[in-house]
Amino acid sequence: MSVASTGANAGTIAKEAIKLQGVASTAASAEASGVLSGVAGVVKSVRAAFKAKGAMEKWRGLRHLKKDNAAHSELLVRLAAEANTAELNARTANEAVEEARNDREGRTEEEWAAGIRAAGAAYEAASLIEARAKANFLRAERDLEDLTGVTKLATRKQVSKVAKEGGGGLLGEGLKGAGGIATVAIVATGALASNPAGWITAAVGAGLVLLTAGYKGGRAAYGRFQEAHHPELYTPEGEPIPAAKDSGDALLHAMKFWKKITRYKRQLAAHKIYNMVSSPHTDPALRASALQLMILIKAGYTDHKMERERWEESLMNPADKGNWIKEITDQLSSGS
Questions:
Q1: Phi, psi of 301 (to 5 degrees)
Q2: Which one of 36, 113, 180, 212 is most buried, counting C-beta atoms within 10 A?
């Protein structure tokens, strides 16, 4: 695509240079430029159509996944009930310890001490069950919140991708291509000087392309500003938080358009999903939904030509963590 764009732009520059020099072959140069612009525009427009179609398919799947995620609320209700029951049992066991300490009448010293030990052991066991049940509930609650948030983010990204590919790609590049083709037709009929239809069409298309590029550039700059000014918001759990930059330094960082964003919404979302699918402590139902999310965004086993079992083993392998987080981040993008 870059080669095609460069060729088309080079043709336009050459055409304008010849016009400025008053060379008699202006029509020929305009025709050559029109051919280059037409071919490049049509090719890029077709490419954008396929990318928009792929984004629509992802969006439909993610919309269904959002509905499935809502069903996980029943899981939270069950885990909450288990945690409450475990807490009640632990409280009852603790009361039994106090009763054993106060029950000395008619008992020998050894019997009294044995009763306390038995009650204490029962309380310790009940406390462990309580702690495990509460941890399971809190983990599932956090995982469901993360899964829901990442699904929403992925859905928004695909909607954005459809809009950008449809506007700046399919329509914008298509109009640029049509402008180039119209230029060739105008030259062929000898009406170049009196009929600006090709240039107007191409200009409208170029405007849509520039508008899309400006939007993407602005969003990227904002992301770089946020990662520098508020790193605590986008640092994955368990990782050290970098020192935050003040507004001035963060703005300078935002202007470095050649630098990729390393800590922002997509990167954080990728870490959350990876942590869910790679942890042995994730509830099986929630893990299945997280794996389905990866499949929907084209980070699944078929996309990597792997058997499902091998794919899941790779996700559980710490050595592959960096590659999978990068893959999830890329697939969550609205621009890839």
A1: -70, -35
A2: 180
Task: Note the residue count of the chain.
Answer: 336
Q: What angle do CA 115, 118, 123 make, to 5 degrees?
A: 125
Asked if residues 199 and 229 have their Cβ atoms less than 8 Å apart, the reply is no
| pLDDT tens sequence across 277-315 | 999 899 999 999 999 999 988 888 998 899 999 999 999
pLDDT tens-digit series, residues 148-184:
888 888 888 777 776 665 555 555 555 555 555 555 5
Distance CA 83, CA 132 (A): 8
CA 52-170-63 angle, to 5 degrees, is 20
Number of helices (H) and strands (E) in the chain: give both, helices first.
12, 0
Q: What is the largest CA-CA distance in the chain?
A: 123
The helix, strand and coil proportions of the chain, stated in percent and rounded to the nearest 5, come to 80, 0, 20
Q: Which two tokens stand for residue 79?
A: 């885990």
Q: Are 262 and 227 in contact (CB under 8 A)?
A: yes
Cβ atoms of residues 180 and 42 within 8 Å: no
Cα 40–Cα 56–Cα 202 angle in degrees, nearest 5: 25
C-alpha angle with apex 70: 277 to 155, nearest 5 degrees? 70
C-alpha span between 268 and 329 (Å, rounded): 9
- One-character DSSP codes across 110-178: HHHHHHHHHHHHHHHHHHHHHHHHHHHHHHHHHHHHHHHHHHHHHHHHHHHHHHHIIIIIIIIIHHHHH
Q: Which residues of 305-320 are buried (b: 16+ CB within 10 A; e: fewer)?
A: eeeeeebbebbeeeee
Query: To the nearest 10°, the Cα dihedral for 292, 297, 299, 305?
Result: 90
pTM confidence score: 0.62
